[in-house]
Amino acid sequence: MERLRAEKVSYCYRTKYQTIEALKEVSCSFAAARMYAVVGESGSGKSTLLSLLAGLDVPAAGEILIEGENLRDMDRDRYRRDTVSVVYQAFHLFPLLTAMENVMYPMQLQGISRKEACRRAGMLIRKVGLPEKIFGQFPKMMSGGEQQRVAIARALAAGGKILLADEPTGNLDSENERHIVEILKQCAHEDGLTVIVITHNPAVAAAADGIWRMCDGRLQEEESGK
Amino acid sequence: MRSLSGYHKFFGLPVLRNLVRHWQKSLLSGLVGLLTVLLLAAYMGNMESARAQLAALPAALPVTGKISNLNGSLDAGLKIPEKTVQGIAEAKELKGQVFTVLLRAGLGVFTLEEWEGNLNFFVVGANDLAGVPGLKKEEICFWGDVDEGILRTAEDVCIVDIWTMEQNGLSPGDEILLTFFYYRFGNDTGSGNTVFIEPLCSTYSRIVGVMDIEEYTGTVGCPNLIVPFDSARQMFHGQDIPFTADSVSFTVADPFRLNACKEELHTLGLLPVMKNAEYRFDGNAVTLRDDTFIRAAENLRESLAILQGILPFVLCMIVCAGYLCSYLLMQSRRPEYATMRSLGMSWRHCFLLLLAESAVTETAACATGSLLALAILKTQPAVLLLAGGLFLGALLAGTGGALWSFRRLSVMAVLGRGD
Description:
- The structure holds two protein chains of two kinds.
- By secondary structure, chain A is of the alpha/beta class.
- Chain A is 33% helix and 29% strand.
- Chain A has a single domain (32-55, 75-222), classed as Rossmann fold.
- Chain B is elongated, with a radius of gyration of 38 Å.
- Chain B has helices spanning 4-9, 12-21, 23-60, 82-90, 162-167, 229-238, 258-267, 291-309, 311-331, 334-342, 347-377, 381-404, 411-415, and strands at residues 64-68, 80-81, 94-107, 121-126, 140-142, 157-161, 175-185, 195-211, 225-228, 244-245, 247-252, 271-272, 285-289.
- In chain B, the strands form two sheets. Chain B has a six-stranded mixed β-barrel with strand order 3-4-9-6-8-7.
- In chain B, 47% of the residues lie in helices and 20% in strands.
- Chain B has two domains: 4-55 and 300-415, no CATH class; 64-289, no CATH class.
- Chain A binds chain B through residues 42-48, 50-51, 54, 56-57, 77-82, 85-86, 88-90, 92-97, 105-106, 108-111, 113-114, 154, 158, 166-167, and chain B through 2-3, 5-7, 9-10, 18, 21-22, 335-336, 338-339, 341-347, 410-412, 415-419.
């Protein structure tokens, strides 16, 4: 079932001196319960595409459709709150919140009671393979792998249908990288999420169900290794 | 549309928790706010003090005036027409008017020809004790229920000096028969003015007080009797003799309306003193002692104008301080802001959350600063309230401006790799 679709999406960055066309009529579609990898050189427009899919910006031309509904017509704050979650390479956990509080954050933003958010956050942290002792720890007390897992738990906390990950294993060792990939695959295959991972890492790309390659603002579908 | 209850849950506590989490920044921001409030309180306290001094100036430096002759050499022993006296008594711009008229008198009934041995008393008709130079209130002992207010009536009463009482075997409460004479100013003959003593009337007068003047500072003889000004005036009216007063002095009711006062005095026919004018007894000029008041008022007004003039700049500086402080402090919180946005918090919610953090910090700083100002600078609570309100308004405007600039912040640029 198609969940997310981009139709002839274009985007350009305008500076004082030049206009850079980051995306050129990009079209792609992403199905539910599948994990995709978007690969490409630095500056090819991968993060721009992710930013548009995450509803952080709107395309200059073209449309992004979520289960047939045009993102332009949606409340983008609500879309980010309820439908899509993003995991970043630099984790971007709130440094002054504990792991538990970080995971509770999106739920509290949704108006879920503190007690219920606390219960669900505990479940999610366990789900990403972290022990209970991590609950009260602050991000700087955790390893990179632990932080990334907390970030994934936070992304799952909102209960959205789409999970975007921007180089989620970029700062991790190979052991942690494997764990994170497993969790992402689990999210897609067991929880039915559409997972889109932006990566330079061939191993991560190889684990995906579908691969898209970005080159000079254009997107091409590649044969996946599966 | 999303219900607001969720927002409420996610507003009050997070603000306080954020403040605690960012306690170093909150403390720094609070200290800046506290110092600003102290400075603003000191500045506005000065402004209020200048305003209060200006308001208190008429009481501290009253502007007084006197009727004089045209060249200003005489302010007593004058010939001040009744029309002028009445005009000054009724003038709106004046208060505390003191009128006197000089008379002579003797006990019993006698004619001008019999003056020798009889015309022994110097008499002052006054509506206020201030009309008798050097006489102090405590030097008079009133009889019965009478007080100095008796001088503002037209009753046939008198206050007699103790020496006269003893010499003539008089007692307080006695009714004495007196024959009064007045000073008549003759026509100018070209070589000066001439003053005549003329009979006025004989009347009974009740002794209502005894005086013992230690140090008379007047120019004419020390008075043996004081009678109410209006009773003396009635003696003239009873005899169809044109009344003239000897001296008139007053206080300007509102020294800030000096021009209106001068205008009113001008309409009464009074002229400014002309030093080169001929020496005469006619009381037709007025001297106002307003130099000190004008100088002090001008200085205070100038100070106040300067303080008020720089108020907009002071407020602008607070706005700028609010902007800069918030802008600089928020730089390190850009990823936090971007993450909040990426998690679906609306820009408006972020703005209000961060503004509320600033508002709580600055309100606490404002309260502490105000208490310190109250304790150290003794600033008035009303001034502190105003200063606090201006500080919070200006600072939050600056903070709002700084947070507004975050609206254009690219969330992806902060969170992503800038790809």
